[in-house]
Design brief:
eight-stranded antiparallel β-barrel; globular; alpha+beta; 18% helix; 43% strand; 187 residues
Length: 187
Amino acid sequence: MRKIFLVLLAVVFTVPVLSAQEVAMQPEAYTAVAVGTGGAAGGKTIPFDFRVTYYATDQDIERLATILREKGRDALRSAMEKLNAGRINPVGTVGNQIAVARKRQQGNVTIITIVTARDMSFAELYRSNRSVDYPFGFLQVKLNEKGEGTGQVIGAAKIRFDKKKGKYEIESYGNQYVKVANVRPNK
């Protein structure tokens, strides 16, 4: 059964960001471990790194939200393929370019949300598997004052705007039971 993650993409599309983002920022690098907690990924761990070089402004997000609302998912993916806000990669691999990164404070907790236009293999595209309808990757981590924390990852996601509900939604491809643990600043 497919799980639908209804996320008001306020986290990605409408939440105010830290004011420091609008000034040139120093890259932020983190290391973490993706932990499979069920399904085919159960018991598997993958160490990965992510480095954010740019946090999107409210204007950037509004532009992307407008593209999704007016032109759809494919146009959003095309626009996101041109963006470079850093890199996320399993250790020892090239990984994916980060298209959008947002950072916000919620009390003592810092929340970083990352969306990628995920890389798809030639075989996946050639076979036209159902997974090609889920062209985005999603990572969200919650960090304490030391920059340490946990989170979740959706390796293949669909982003859409539900005009009837007036909400943005993220739908996961299948049951993805992947948590993120041991997030730490990478110095």
